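Progress against Task 2.4 (sequence-to-structure conversion) is shown through the following example record, which the project officer requested during the mid-term review.
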Amino acid sequence: MNDFDYFDINNPITPKRGDLLISEPYLPDPNFERSVVYLCEHDENGTFGFVLNKPSLLHFDEVIDSTEDFKELLMVGGPVEQQTLHFLHRTPELMKSGKLIRNGIHWGGDFERLLSIIQNKIINPADFRFFIGYSGWAEGQLADELESKSWIVYKGATATQVFDTDPDELWRTVLKAMGGKYKMFSNYPSDPRLN
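Structure tokens generated for the chain above:
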């Protein structure tokens, strides 16, 4: 398999950092209903990432002092530690820090530098995604969920998917791009009783 193969429930592959987890259409967990999770870490100790398509009710300037007028919407990165703020970006030349995950997508970086580029209005908000909380799985937990077919794995997320795709359309857009039966999944109604 190459880096862009998709998860096949008959031949499961192990996700790795930089992949997307896409919730199956009727996942019963309300924290992850129709979610797309970007994986920042996946190893023998567990898995860590951010939900890309769950907006919160908060904006950046409402939670961080000294950033008035920076109205970027915060996404709910997951149900864990929702009092924490995290970010992904694609501007290492501007941030000068952060961990490269894959395909030009960086996680975190120097928070003081982030505040400085916000205050000096040299930030392009389209190059960042901000999250409250994160998604985490203990050792072996995600493997069990994959085995029970709760998630579909998309290999090698692009910066366009992470930063440029409308969060409201991301779940459907990624499934459509995968084609075949996944394209059919993208058309499933949110409530099967409505079908």
